[in-house]
Amino acid sequence: MSVQSYKDLIVWQKALDLVEIVYQVTRVFPKEELYALTNQLRRAAVSIPSNIAEGHARSSTRDFHRFLSIARGSLAEVETQLLIAQRLGYLSDDQLAPILSLQIEINKMTNRLMAKLAPNP
Fold this sequence. Notes:
Blueprint: H1 10-26, H2 34-57, H3 61-87, H4 93-117
Helix pairs in contact: 1-2, 1-4, 2-3, 3-4
Protein name: Four helix bundle protein
Organism: Thiorhodovibrio winogradskyi
InterPro entries: 23S_rRNA-intervening_sequence (IPR012657), 23S_rRNA_IVS_sf (IPR036583)
């Protein structure tokens, strides 16, 4: 299958799934977290598919690689913030496990795509 659009990328599709899940779980975070952890976690999650899309739309492979690197950084940010939410008692182990599993899957997919885009030595 030829990738005509960023929408064809499974990693982008899964990143959208992650955004949806993050929004669902943060709906029940305490109200005092609305402009703190809730907002920060949502913004980091939204950044992942956004950077994949923007990088794919750029005119060079080098740019795409750079934007994938930014998306990977946002993945680490999301993971960290989810772990903080768990420590604060906002997420249970049962809630956290499938989200982290998806985050790990997206990270692996991003790493593989970056490796394919890297110039050969």
